[in-house]
Write a structure and sequence with these properties.
The chain has about 140 residues and is of the alpha/beta class. The protein has a single domain, classed as 3-Layer(aba) Sandwich (Rossmann fold), CATH 3.40.50.9100. It has 5 helices and 5 strands; from the N terminus they run E-H-H-E-H-E-H-E-E-H. It has a 5-stranded parallel beta sheet, with helices on both faces. It is globular and about 35 Å long. The protein binds 1,3,4-trihydroxy-5-OXO-cyclohexanecarboxylic acid.
């Protein structure tokens, strides 16, 4: 089973970026623990700050992987191009946000990408990624 985690803009700075909101662990360190926890899953991690690069990645893997766990960062709130990319492929996606986007600035309350996903997880810190992987594993059994 192949699952990819795709992180969007500014998420490369996890660990340093607003740690009071996003925590102090780097995503690389968290990802190593995920790989250990889900040893039976082929887990991949991809991050980009560029919308087109994220779209290219979705196209590349979106007809052969079993799940996309995507945190589109701020693109969540306005990228119809990412929405279209997620709709265009056959691999199901789960949207995840480390923070609770409903309890922050008004502009974060809108997600244009979640309608292209089978679920949205928010406000559970990094453990939301784990929940998303569990959901894919459960759904494929
Ligand atoms: O970059 C991010 C991170 C985020 O997606 C989250 O994980 O909580 C929430 C977004 O509003 C923000 O732009």
């Amino acid at each position: 089973m192949k699952i990819i985690i795709i992180n969007g803009p500014n998420l490369n700075l996890l660990g340093k970026r607003e740690p009071e909101i996003y925590g102090s662990l780097t995503f690389e360190d968290y990802f190593s623990s995920l790989q250990k926890k889900f040893a039976a899953v082929e887990l991949e991690y991809f991050q980009s700050n560029h919308e087109g690069t994220l779209i290219d990645k979705i196209h590349e893997i979106g007809f052969s992987y079993q799940g996309i766990v995507i945190n589109p960062g701020a693109f969540t709130h306005y990228s119809y191009a990412l929405y279209d990319a997620l709709k265009a492929v056959t691999t199901p996606a789960i949207e995840i946000h480390i923070s609770d986007i409903d309890k922050r600035e008004d502009f974060r309350k809108v997600s244009v990408t979640s309608a292209a996903c089978i679920a949205q997880i928010k406000g559970k810190g990094l453990s939301g990624y784990e929940d998303a992987i569990h959901t894919f594993i459960k759904n494929t059994k």
